[in-house]
Recover the amino acids of this structure.
């Protein structure tokens, strides 16, 4: 078998056999197949696609290219949630404790942010002392004791994806739906959970810009999970405007704490309740989503979800006083108000523009080597559908950058808000559920 023959085969639109796909992935990880041949293959896949059988085999080969976590020692049906990324997405920080407080073991391996998207690990590391690097036995022990752990991937988890994603990023093949699906699902399957809830974001601030592409990706990932014997459900959620009001690491942690205390933004809580109720049915804790939602709402009313978050922070070395007293999180040196230039209804808030502005204020990374300013970001005062008076504050920029930087960013951020005279209805965060 020669790699060049497989490249030509896929270039001509033919199907690859299971054996051929496993040969490619095994050779690529070992170094026998060079980057330039894998680049050619991923470009051929971008143009010619893969069928469901091919994508499932690719996912399975990538999943088993390194370590696969053995979570069999964790009691109960284990559930996990993955988001395809967005702006202001602190869902895991709220959803995880809620689901765990209902009795479902929540195990989550998360990543870091790059560009306009925020990473769950970065947000958690804004809590002084919080450790995201847990050994497998420590991870299992924590979930058994408190029902919840959120940590980073082990170094040898899905090495095929690490190598291939870096290559796709510099060869213009990131947009391939089969490769996205295999990348996401190989990591989720290697994490060893029984149920997977996928939050596939769609809109200006998401990777999938239109609903048709998002639906295609979601259906493919659900099919892969089902073929590989995992209970998989996808939620399509809106990411045209930022999720919630806070964008930026410490700002989002504070919003998550407020949400767990019953003061969460409507869109964030709706996404948590919808996703969480589905996860509780996957874990067989609730007989249906209606019962699941009532259980989740009770965890907020009773304070049990907040207590679960506090337990996780303590277990992973974080300073619990910051969770009990969020005002302890340091504020950035400058808070710059962005003012509405006219009366009217907020028609749109460009999530991508807000995410990029937060990054430029210090709240994100352009490269993986950049250091994040945990206090930097943007707090929205208005959402789509809100009425605003001329002179009211649309949002507040938080930064330690100098005036020559933040003044230019403030002008750009103002342009991300569109205010019109006509009435604008509120956006629905849940677009569709795919089982």
């Amino acid at each position: 078998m020669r790699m060049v023959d497989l490249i030509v085969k896929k270039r001509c639109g033919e199907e690859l056999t299971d054996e051929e796909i496993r040969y490619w992935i095994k050779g690529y990880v070992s170094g026998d197949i060079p980057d330039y041949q894998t680049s050619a293959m991923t470009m051929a896949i971008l143009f010619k696609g893969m069928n469901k059988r091919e994508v499932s085999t690719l996912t399975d080969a990538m999943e088993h290219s390194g370590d696969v976590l053995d979570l069999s020692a964790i009691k109960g049906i284990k559930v996990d949630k993955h988001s395809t990324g967005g702006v202001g997405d602190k869902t895991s920080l709220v959803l995880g404790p809620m689901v765990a407080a209902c009795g479902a073991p929540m195990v989550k391996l998360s990543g870091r942010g790059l560009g306009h998207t925020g990473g769950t690990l970065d947000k958690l590391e804004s809590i002084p002392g919080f450790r995201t690097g847990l050994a497998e036995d420590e991870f299992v022990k924590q979930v058994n004791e408190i029902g919840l752990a959120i940590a980073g991937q082990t170094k040898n988890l899905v090495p095929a994806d690490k190598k291939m994603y870096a290559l796709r990023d510099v060869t213009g093949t990131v947009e391939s739906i089969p490769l996205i699906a295999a990348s996401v699902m190989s990591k989720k399957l290697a994490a060893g959970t029984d149920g997977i809830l996928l939050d596939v974001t769609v809109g200006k601030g998401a990777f999938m810009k239109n609903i048709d592409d998002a639906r295609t990706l979601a259906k493919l990932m659900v099919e892969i999970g089902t073929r590989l014997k995992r209970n998989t459900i996808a939620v399509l959620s809106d990411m045209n405007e930022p999720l919630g009001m806070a964008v930026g690491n410490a700002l989002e942690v504070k919003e998550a704490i407020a949400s767990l205390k019953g003061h969460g933004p409507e869109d964030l809580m709706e996404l948590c309740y919808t996703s969480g109720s589905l996860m509780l049915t996957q874990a067989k804790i609730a007989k249906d989503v209606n019962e699941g939602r009532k259980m989740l709402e009770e965890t907020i009313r009773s304070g049990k979800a907040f207590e679960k978050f506090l337990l996780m922070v303590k277990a992973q070395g974080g300073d619990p006083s910051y969770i009990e007293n969020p005002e302890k999180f340091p504020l950035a040196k400058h808070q710059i108000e962005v003012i509405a230039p006219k009366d009217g209804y907020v028609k749109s808030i460009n999530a991508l523009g807000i995410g990029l502005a937060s990054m430029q204020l210090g709240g994100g990374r352009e490269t993986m080597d950049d250091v994040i300013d945990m206090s930097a970001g943007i707090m929205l005062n208005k959402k789509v559908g809100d009425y605003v008076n001329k002179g009211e504050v649309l949002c507040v920029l938080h930064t330690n950058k100098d005036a020559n930087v933040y003044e230019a960013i403030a002008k750009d951020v103002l342009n991300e808000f569109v205010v019109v005279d006509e009435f604008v209805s509120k956006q629905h965060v849940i677009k569709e559920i795919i089982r």
